[in-house]
Design brief:
CATH topology of the largest domain: UDP-N-acetylmuramoyl-L-alanine:D-glutamate ligase
Shape: globular
CATH class of the largest domain: Alpha Beta
Helix content: 25-40%
Largest sheet: 9 strands, mixed
CATH superfamily of the largest domain: Mur-like, catalytic domain
C-alpha cells in the first residue's frame, strides 16, 4: 500500500484512530483525523502526536474541503453505513479499516481469532503459547486487535519471524479486504451487535470474512457444535480443523482433524493434550477456548509439549469469570466481559453454587429468554441496573422468576448483593449487556465492580 503523499482521513480519535494516524504519517501520507463527537477537545488529541506532527484534526462536523481524500481509515466503532462514510465513498475515497491498514504494513505470520464469545481468552492463550515458542526459537510475538492493543501500534515493528496473535471483532472485519491470516479461528456465532449489523445473516457473513482470503495451505479452526461455523467448514477456502465437546464421531466423519473431549481429557484426534482438572481455567466454555487455541498453535507448528505446559499454568483473563475476593463465606466473580446473553450464560454455567447475579446495561437489541432459562434454580436473586433493567425484568417474570432487585448504580448493586448473599453463595457480575451509557467500556465496569467488592467489610 503506497500512501506516500496520499491524502488519508482517519475517522475516530480513540486508541485505534490515533495509532492509525501515526502509522499513516510515518508512511508519508498527508493525514487528517475526524471525530464526530463535538465534546472531544482538539488540543488533547494533538498531545497524542509528536510535536512535529502535521495531522489535521476536525471535531463535530467534517468541513467540505476535507472530503477530498484518496482513502479513509475507519476506527472499529464507526459503521460503514455512517452518513459521512457514505458521502466519502461517493466522492471516490477508498474505505478501509485499522486491521487492513496494519496488515498491509506488517510482517510475519498472523494467527487471527474471532467469534461472539471467548475471543479474548483464546487470543491471550494463543499469545502466551506463541511467546513461549518465540523465546526458544527467536522472533517476537505480538498480541493485538480488539484485545486493547491496536495492530497499527506495532505493525511497523514486526519482522518476517514475528508472530501476531490477533483478536478480531466483527466491527474490524467489516473493513478487511486483503487480510489473510496464516491461521484463523471462528469460535462461535450467536446473536450480538444486531443494532450494528441489522440481521443475523449479515453478522455471520462478516464473521466469515476472517477466512475468506485464506488459501489451501492456510488453516481455519472452527466450532463443530455451532451450526454457523460447522456450515462454513464445508465452504472454507482452506484446511479446516474442528473442535467439539459433544459430537466427535460426527465431526470425525468430515475427514478433518478434530479436537474433542473424552471425559475430562482434551485430545487432538487420538493425541492426549491435557486433563481439564490440571487446568486453572474454570467452565466448559473455557474447554472450548483451550481446544481452539490448541488447534491454532499446533497446526502452526508449535510442539504439543510446549502447548500443554503453557495451558497448565494459564489463568483466566481479567473480567472473564475472574475471582475477586471472598467476603463472609461469599465468593465474588467479575464477568464484566459477559456483554451479551450467550456469554453471560457461560458465566452462570461456571458457577457451582447458589448465585446472586448482577445484570443489565446498554440495549443491543438482544433477547434474554435463553439467559433467564439458564438460571435453572441456581440464581437466588437477579440484581438489575442500566438501560435494559426493565426489559430483562419483564422477560424474567415471563419465565416465572420473581426475585428481582432494581438498582441505579454499581455501588448499589454490590451493596444489595452483599446483603442478599448467604455464606456459601457466589455473587456474579455477568451483565449480558454492553457497558455503554453507564461506563466507558466493560473494563471500566469490571474495575469499578472489583474496587467496590474489595471495599466491602468482613
Amino acid at each position: 500500500m503506497d500512501l506516500k503523499d496520499k491524502k488519508v482521513l482517519v475517522i475516530g480519535s480513540g486508541i485505534s484512530g490515533i495509532n492509525s494516524a501515526r502509522l499513516l504519517e510515518t508512511a508519508g501520507a498527508e493525514v487528517s483525523l475526524f471525530d464526530a463527537n463535538d465534546k472531544v477537545v482538539i488540543d488533547e488529541i494533538k498531545r497524542k502526536f509528536i510535536e512535529e506532527s502535521r495531522v489535521s484534526i476536525y471535531v463535530g462536523e467534517l468541513p467540505e474541503h476535507a472530503y477530498a481524500v484518496d482513502a479513509v481509515v475507519l476506527s472499529p466503532g464507526v459503521p460503514i453505513d455512517n452518513p459521512v462514510v457514505l458521502k466519502l465513498k461517493e466522492a471516490g475515497a477508498k474505505i478501509t479499516g485499522e486491521i487492513e491498514l496494519a496488515y498491509e504494513f506488517g510482517h510475519g505470520d498472523v494467527l487471527a481469532i474471532t467469534g461472539t464469545n471467548g475471543k479474548t481468552t483464546t487470543t491471550t492463550l494463543v499469545g502466551e503459547i506463541c511467546s513461549n515458542y518465540s523465546k526458544i526459537h527467536g522472533g517476537k510475538t505480538y498480541v493485538v486487535g480488539n484485545i486493547g492493543n491496536p495492530y497499527t501500534a506495532v505493525a511497523l515493528e514486526t519482522k518476517e519471524d514475528s508472530i501476531v496473535a490477533a483478536e478480531i471483532s466483527s466491527f474490524q472485519l467489516e473493513t478487511t479486504d486483503e487480510f489473510r491470516p496464516r491461521v484463523s479461528a471462528i469460535l462461535n456465532i450467536t446473536p450480538d451487535h444486531l443494532n450494528r449489523h441489522y440481521t443475523m445473516e449479515n453478522y455471520v457473513r462478516v464473521k466469515e470474512r476472517i477466512a475468506l482470503r485464506q488459501k489451501d495451505d492456510d488453516v481455519t479452526v472452527l466450532n463443530y457444535d455451532d451450526p454457523y461455523t460447522r456450515d462454513f467448514g464445508r465452504r472454507a477456502p482452506c484446511r479446516v480443523i474442528y473442535f467439539t465437546r459433544t459430537s466427535y464421531e460426527e465431526a470425525k466423519e468430515t475427514g478433518c482433524d478434530v479436537l474433542h473431549m473424552d471425559g475430562d481429557m482434551i485430545l487432538y484426534n487420538d493425541i492426549p493434550v491435557i486433563d481439564v482438572k490440571d487446568m486453572l481455567l474454570l467452565g466448559t466454555h473455557n474447554y472450548e477456548n483451550v481446544m481452539a487455541a490448541v488447534g491454532i498453535t499446533y497446526s502452526y507448528g508449535i510442539p504439543m509439549d510446549l502447548i500443554r505446559d503453557t495451558i497448565r499454568t494459564f489463568k483466566a483473563v481479567e473480567h472473564r469469570i475472574e475471582f475477586v475476593r471472598s467476603v463472609n463465606g461469599v465468593d465474588y466473580y467479575n464477568d464484566s466481559k459477559g456483554t451479551n446473553p450467550d456469554a453471560a450464560i457461560k458465566g452462570i454455567q461456571a458457577m457451582n453454587r447458589k448465585t446472586v447475579l448482577i445484570g443489565g446495561g446498554f440495549d443491543k437489541k438482544s433477547s434474554y429468554d435463553e439467559w433467564i432459562d439458564s438460571f435453572d434454580g441456581k440464581v437466588r436473586y437477579l440484581v438489575l441496573l442500566g438501560q435494559t433493567a426493565e426489559k430483562i425484568a419483564e422477560c424474567a417474570r415471563a419465565h416465572g422468576f420473581e426475585n428481582i432487585i432494581m438498582v441505579s448504580s454499581m455501588e448499589e448493586a454490590v451493596n444489595r448483593s452483599y446483603e442478599l448473599a448467604e455464606p456459601g453463595d457466589a455473587v456474579l457480575l455477568s451483565p449480558a449487556c454492553a457497558s455503554w451509557g453507564m461506563f466507558t467500556n466493560f473494563e471500566e465496569r469490571g474495575r469499578i465492580f472489583k474496587e467496590l467488592v474489595n471495599g466491602l467489610k468482613e
